[in-house]
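Today's session is about reading a structure prediction critically. Students often jump straight to the picture, but the first step is always the sequence itself: look for stretches that repeat, for charged clusters, for runs of hydrophobic residues. Only then move on to the predicted structure, which in these notes is written as discrete structure tokens rather than atom positions. Here is the chain we will use throughout the hour.
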Amino acid sequence: MPKPVAVDGDTQVKTSSKKHSSDTNSAGKWQLVSSSVTQGSKLSVAAKLVEIGATASWSYVGGTAGSPPVAVGPFSDSATLTASTTRLKDKGKDLLVDGDQASGSVDADNKIVVTASQSKLRTA
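Below is the predicted structure for this chain, in token form.
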């Protein structure tokens, strides 16, 4: 069944609120370091270009273990969202669609998630 295509602004990055297993004092937290969404160059809906991929990286900082506390980390995490094969393409590149997501390799709650804001342009 065809799904709505992602356009500019539809891909969001979510940062985990979980604690890293090495942070036994639960003192640290995940922070977004960088994120990037790649847009197509030809297809658009309402003047918003389609999205074809995304990356994000996080760092767990401020963690401690033991008493007295000893710093642990920082720990890095990353995710890459690549479009599945779609019939509709932007200059030969597959498109992100509603529901696409990728999780961090260290903490699965660090995510890149697509929620399509339009329903005019769809693809299978």
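Discussion point for the tutorial: The chain is about 0% helix and 50% strand.
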